[in-house]
Each structure stands twice: as structure tokens, then as C-alpha cells.
Amino acid sequence: MLVGIKAVIVDLDGTMVDTLGDFEEALNRTLADLDLPPVTRALIERTVGKGSEHLIRSVLAHQLALPEVTGLSNVCQARSVDTLYEPAWQRYQHHYLRINGEFSAVYPGVVEGLARLKAMQLPMACLTNKPLAFAQGLLKAKFLDGYFGWVFGGDSFERKKPDPMPILGTCAAMGVVPAQALMVGDSQNDALASRAAGCPVALVTYGYNHGQPVDQAPHDLLVDSLLELAERLTS
Ligand SMILES: O=C(O)COP(=O)(O)O
Ligand SMILES: [Mg+2]
User: Fold this and answer.
1) CB 47 near ligand 1, within 6 Å
2) Using CA atoms, how far apart are residues 63 and 3, in angstroms rounded to an integer?
3) Which atom of ligand 1 is nearest to the CA of 186?
4) DSSP output for 51-86
5) Is 224 within any annotated ligand binding site?
6) Does the C-beta of 101 come closer than 6 Å to ligand 1?
7) Tell me: the pLDDT tens digits for 142-175?
8) How far is the CA of 14 from the centre of ligand 1 (A)?
9) ipTM score of the complex?
10) What is the pTM of this model?
């Protein structure tokens, strides 16, 4: 039962926007620049959610270990995640910012749900592990920016979800205590950060949770859409 909710904090990737296509496009353009083979969407889906550095490092480690890459000349074998990370991050930012939103789609019920929450005069913040510049561009491209009084990214605080710091910082910015803020997310990162911050959490059933069933993560409410969430808050 959710009572005394005065503010809502909403995750971005996997909760509001299905961004796997954007990740796939930006990563594969980056890998092509580095003469590495393309990555599969399934690997991205299992890996996304802990921010860009984690995603890039995990993808580089996976691609460098492929037999067709380890079988290359000594020069190529000298390449490591550490030596490739910085150029990969530079190319990734370049590509991501150019395609941001082009290969992604807003999930059904998001606009209707946000509109209802806004009509209930609940202040809303977007809190994502995505870099802030990517998040702001995506919200704008998808016409979702007008719903949020605050937007925080994975580089807005010293630590990312599942650490509670970003939730605590967002609550402070919104002027509410964690018990009054409802976090809405799609993964264990949102769930664990919320629990550690002392903030109730609703999880959507359709996002990315590192290949694990999301209902196994701690939650106070499980919903199939943001519209259902808004309906549950009014009833
Ligand atoms: O890891 C990411 O970039 C996506 O993160 P999010 O699910 O917190 O929006
Ligand atoms: Mg997410």
C-alpha cells in the first residue's frame, strides 16, 4: 500500500523509453571505429542499466574475447579493455549524441501515465544512470522533458544506482524525504537503491533487468505500465 506519496522519481531506460536500438547503433558504430565485431542486442539487454562506463567496459571485454579477435595478430592481441576504454568512450559519445532517440521508442502508457501524475500535481524527477547529456537529449527528442522539474544522470552524483546516493540527492533537490518519494524503475538497480535510501519502489514488468525476472528484486508495487501506476496511486 502506498500512502503519503508527495513526489515521483522515474527511471529512463527500460522504464520510459525502449532504448536498446540506440545502444546497439551507438555501440556498433563505436566497435566498427575500433575494428571490433558488432555486439548482439541480447548482450546489450543483459548489460545495460549500470551506466555507460560499465556498458562499454563489458562490451569491450566480451568482443576482445571472441575467437575471431583473439586469433588476430600480436598487435591486436595487445589491445585490452583498459587501453581501448578511453577511445571507445570518445567515439561512443560522438555517435550516441548523433543518433539519440532515433532507434528507440516510448513504451505504451508512458505519456498517459505521466500526464495523470502531472494532473495529480505530483512533482516529478527523472533519475537515470545514463549520462545527463544523453538523458536530456532523449527526453527532449521524445517530448517527455516537460513532465520533469529535475533531471539527474549517472554523472550527476558521485555514485550511481544501486547506490542510494542518487535517490537521496534527488529527494533533497525535490524537498521531500525518501519515504515521501516513489521511485519507478525497471531493474534491481532502481530497487536496491530505493530500498537503501528508504524510498518506496514500483517496478515495471517490461524493461531490462540483467536477464533476471524483475519480480525477484525488492518492490512495493509491480505494474505493466506507467498508466497502471498512476491509476494505482489514485485508487
Ligand atoms: O545504464 C544506463 O545507461 C541506463 O540506465 P537507467 O535504466 O538508469 O536509465
Ligand atoms: Mg532502467
Assistant:
1) no
2) 47
3) 7
4) -HHHHHHHHHHHHHTSHHHHTS-HHHHT--HHHHHH
5) no
6) no
7) 999 999 999 999 999 999 999 999 999 999 999 9
8) 8
9) 0.98
10) 0.95
The annotation status of 18 as a binding-site residue, yes or no, is no
Instruction: Identify the structural domains of the chain with CATH numbers, from first to last.
Output: 7-18+105-234 (3.40.50.1000), 20-99 (1.10.150.240)
pLDDT tens, position by position, 86-145 = 999 999 999 999 999 999 999 999 999 999 999 999 999 999 999 999 999 999 999 999
**d(C-alpha 160, C-alpha 86), whole Å:** 20
Contacts of 225 (CB under 8 A, 6+ apart): 107, 108, 109, 110, 113, 204
Residues 6+ apart with CB under 8 A from 135: 12, 126, 128, 151, 153
Tell me which residue has cell 537503501. Answer: 196
Q: CB–CB of 5/122 below 8 Å?
A: yes
Out of 9, 11, 13, 184, give the residue to mutate to test ligand 1, the one with the largest number of ligand atoms within 8 Å of its CB: 13
List the catalytic residue out of 11, 145, 220, 224.
11
pLDDT band at 30 (very low <50, low <70, confident <90, very high): very high
SS3 label, residue 219: coil
Is 145 noted as a catalytic residue in this protein?
no
Ligand 1 closest atom vs CA 13: 9
